[in-house]
Structures are given as structure tokens and as C-alpha cells.
Amino acid sequence: MKKHTRREFGATALSVIAASVLPAPVVRAADKKYDPGASDTEIKLGQTVPHSGPGSLYGVLGRVGEAYFQMLNDKGGINGRKVKFLTMDDAYSAPKCVEATRRLVEQEEVLALYGSLGTAPQTAVHKYLNSKGVPQLLLNTGASKWNDPKTYKWTMAGLPLYPTEARILAKHVVSVKPNARIGILYQNDDFGRDFLGPFKKVLTDAGGKAQVIMEQTYDLTDPTVDSQLINLSKSGADVFYNITTGKATSQSIRKVAELGWKPLQLLSAGSTGRSILSAAGLENAKDIVAIRYNKEVGVPRYEKDADVAAFEELRKKYLPNIDPDNTIAFAGYGQAATMGEILRRCGDDLTRANVLKHATTLAGFHSPYFLDGINYSYTPDDYTPMKTLYVSIFNGKDWDLAGEPMTE
């Protein structure tokens, strides 16, 4: 097993870092409360992401987490405690995710897990972590199943929920192409299917003039998605909804261009990272429509943004081998900062229950990764990560926001 060792709206990323390293208030020893993974000197966190295999480009999430907490530790830690962060390789495999997660909980005895990736792998450890009462926070998946605080109170998504995203994109299609003929390529698992029902329901509710005329699926183990794209291009579809991840996204965008097919392209938000689009060819991604809630790195629009500047400072010092335009890395930075804020709010009550309490009361907190106007919306009764999103269009270099953010 491979093992790799905020701000309130309107503030700056650096203010969160500063707040995170403030010494804890003077308290009596009896006021301190600890669960496994926490002590007077240390907080231990875990994560599973694919450092290898078909989803390996997401391994940078773990490397950025390591760098972020090392930076905090160099500044004194969180409330005087150093963070030990363990990011484990699950290769986007459910069995490997189970093995790595059990090791983190039973051998390493982490206080909580955060930022783990993938609907299928995280589903495999969903019941286990809830039975153990271990927080499973800020998941890099937007599956609707994570919003179930009554049954699975220890699990919370970190991305916009897929149904929220799908409904907003469907409304956009109805508004700009009311008689659309839509072809869909989706990942053949819970991730892919979670978009379909909500998307189709909006079309039906709008009167059904815009219709899905073909669906194609792919598996993560498929070497290419060329045949699926050829079928879709011949279907007569004038809208292409691309519900893919990683290399399949890059391949599909490039293949659409090679085929000379020119549909209105919709792309799932989790696959709009700069590295994915660059692999497809930025010119091939021009005019793609997607939900946006985050800033970009490596583009002129945000080069003077305080949060982007703080990330760039971290990258140069701790992660010089990561490209400055790696938006997946920037996403990892935003989640690490958010997890740091949760721990900061916990003070000296570092129990798993208190970690969950502060995670579920983050409504109004603005991650350094987020666009202005976007904040977390978590409450103890509703684990929807965010309800306000932008529709945006890729201009070949950057994303242009289409009007004001939309709230579901």
C-alpha cells in the first residue's frame, strides 16, 4: 500500500492560516477532551485518494494536503497541536479503499478522514465509518447519498451535489435550446447515474420538448471512449452532456473535435480542472458549458486574488513540481484550509462528535477555493455543501460566468 506522508466571506486566505495557528485559550486540563487521533500535541487525519491507477491525477489532492498541514505545522500547528496527515492510495478501487480506510481507523487511529475521493470507493466504506463514528468529511464526490444526516450523520460531501448541478444545467439547456436533442455519455456507476434522473426530470417538467435521444456508458477500465462518441455524433444530437471523469473527459472532448461534431457541450463540474482540459486541448474545450463555483489558478483573471496568491506561495515552497495551473491542486488546498478551520473551531474539544458538530455548522464559511458569492451551506439537518452555483462558458483560456449565481 502506497502511503504519502476560512475564512468568513470577504476575508483572505492568509487570515485563516493566521487564525489557525493562534494559541489555544488558557484552559484547565479537565476542559480538554480527546478521542483517538488527538492529544495535547498532535491531531491525526486520514484520507484515501488514487495516487495510482486510472484516477491518479487526483493524487495531487493528497500531496497538497500534506503540504498545507506541513505549512501550518511550521507555523506552530492548529491551537498549538501539529497535524499528522496520512493520505493513502486506493487506486480508485473499492477493495483497496476498504483496506486503506480500515488501516487508517484501526491501526493509525485517525481522528477523522477528509477529502477522500470517488463515489464507488467511498460507498464501500460508508457504513463502516458510520458504525465506528468516524467523521468522513468533505468528500470529493457530490453523490446525493451523502446528504442523509438522519441515517449517516458522519458522512458529508465536499462538492456540489450532482442532482443540484444536473438540474441547473438542464434548466440552462431548456432556456437556450428549448427543442434540444441530447446525447449523454456517463460513467457506468453511481457517479454517472446520479446526474441522469434529476436532469431528465427538469426536461419533463419543462414540457418535454427538449429530449434525451441517446445514452452511452463507459467503465473506468475502458482504454478509450471513442466508439461511444462516434455513436453519439451520429445520433443527431445537438447537445452533448459529458458526465465523465479524468482521462475519459480529456479523451471525449478531444474526440468530439476530431469528429467535427459541434453540439452544445455540457460538462460535469468535477472534470473542469485545468489539467483535464489541457490534456484535451484547450482549443477543443472552447464553448463548453459547466457549473462553476471555484476560482482558477494559472489564469490572468485571478492572478492578483489573495487566495490564489497564498496557494502559489505554498506551491512554490512545498510543491515546486506541481504545475501552477493545476486546479485540482488548488481544490485540495481549499479543502485542507476548510478542514483546518473545522479543527481550529474545535479548540481543545477534539472528539469526533465535536469535529462533526463544527463541520455541520459551516454555513456561511467561504473556502479560499470558492468564487465570491459562494459559501458552504451545511447545517445539522441538511448536508448540501452549497446551494448557489454559477453557469459558465469556457472561452478557450478561462471560464466566463453567465450572469449572477443561481440558487437551487
Describe the structure.
There is one protein chain. The protein has 408 residues and is α/β, with parallel strands linked by helices. Helices cover 37% and strands 18% of the residues. It has twelve helices and 16 strands. It has helices at 13-20, 60-74, 94-107, 119-132, 162-176, 190-205, 226-233, 246-259, 274-280, 306-318, 327-346, 352-359, and strands at residues 3-4, 33-34, 42-49, 82-89, 112-114, 136-139, 155-157, 181-187, 211-218, 239-243, 264-267, 289-292, 349-350, 388-394, 399-401, 406-407. The strands form three sheets. Strands 8, 9, 10, 11, 12, 14, 15 and 16 form an eight-stranded mixed beta sheet that branches. A six-stranded mixed beta sheet has the order 1-4-3-5-6-7, with helices on both faces. Helix 8 (246-259) runs parallel beside helix 9. The longest helix is centred in the C-terminal third of the chain and has 20 residues, at 327-346. Residues 1-20 have low confidence and may be disordered.
